[in-house]
């Protein structure tokens, strides 16, 4: 085999090898950049939430939930960025940076927010752009997250339960001679 063919084959193989290594390096670098940008955005968001008068109840709180598929239970975990309290409400806050931080949120982010609102049962849901710190209140058409998961403020639900219980006690007392 002529030396020139071996040199060309070796150069081609080395080029392919280095090209693959370069693409992997770029992919890892891009992922590391996005993670760092997200971490910095969440840090800025935490400071902004505190400046706005919210107290951070929990950062990245995990919540286990279940769903049933053909009668078989499957558990999964969700994790919102912040669970906060302030201004008379308990709220969840999801922070996104880059294009994901644009409004209106992408379909994937909307589904994520709806899942959080449904599972965390907070009084409110906020979406914050971690780059600009713009915070928007999110509510869905069925009333979820306007005043908690049922659409009613929590105190109204408890008041209805209390009145109902008092009515039962009153009726029972009237029956006893």
Kindly describe this structure.
This protein has three helices and seven strands. It folds into two domains: 3-146, Trna Endonuclease, Chain: A, domain 1, CATH 3.40.1350; 153-177. It has helices at 3-51, 107-120, 154-175; strands at residues 55-59, 62-69, 72-79, 82-86, 89-96, 124-129, 135-138. Mean pLDDT is 81; it is low at 146-150.
What's the short story on this structure?
With 177 residues, the protein is an alpha+beta fold. It has helices at residues 3-51, 107-120, 154-175; strands spanning 55-59, 62-69, 72-79, 82-86, 89-96, 124-129, 135-138.
Write the SSE topology:
Elements: H1 3-51, E1 55-59, E2 62-69, E3 72-79, E4 82-86, E5 89-96, H2 107-120, E6 124-129, E7 135-138, H3 154-175
Parallel strand pairs: 5-6
Antiparallel strand pairs: 1-4, 2-3, 4-5, 6-7
Main attributes of the structure:
single chain; about 180 residues; alpha+beta; Trna Endonuclease, Chain: A, domain 1; 2 domains; 5-stranded mixed sheet; two-stranded antiparallel sheet; 3 helices; 7 strands; about 50% helix
